[in-house]
Design brief:
The protein is an all-alpha fold and about 140 residues long. Helices cover about 75% and strands about 0% of the residues.
Length: about 140
């Protein structure tokens, strides 16, 4: 029987609080970026494309299910998802500003800014016009 140092045995099976918070931050960043991409793909791009003939339907199958369907519901919800994600991002930034790696911190700042921009844009009359276009 060999003796294993306690620090090695503990470190290999348990996550440290910094590793756990890093995973949560990455998840939040992913959700924020996906929300903004889904809104752009389901609402803004079709609204800007509207005066032109649409491409063939088969080109919309994968993007439609991955981005279009969730983006449709995000558009109908208005600014609520963007504002909630921006507030959550600011909370994470304030809580983990010293423990978070620099690159992940920059990603969190960028995704929080995009979510806030989406939330503020969704409050404008143009966003209401786009939502009515999407709902129609």
């Amino acid at each position: 029987m060999t003796d294993v140092p306690a620090s090695t045995a503990r470190g290999s099976t348990l996550e440290t609080p910094a590793e756990a918070s890093t995973g949560l931050i990455r998840t939040l960043v992913g959700i924020q970026l996906y929300t903004v991409a889904a809104y752009l793909a389901a609402a803004v791009v079709p609204y800007l494309w509207a005066p032109r003939p649409y491409p063939p339907t088969w080109t919309f199958i994968v993007p439609g299910w991955l981005l279009g369907v969730p983006g449709f519901y995000l558009t109908l919800l208005g600014p609520v998802p963007g504002i909630l994600l921006a507030v959550a991002g600011v909370g994470v930034l304030v809580a983990t500003r010293r423990r978070c790696p620099a690159t992940l911190y920059r990603w969190c700042v960028t995704s929080t800014a995009l979510a806030a921009a989406y939330g503020l844009f969704a409050c404008t009359p143009l966003a209401s016009t786009i939502a009515a276009f999407v709902a129609d």
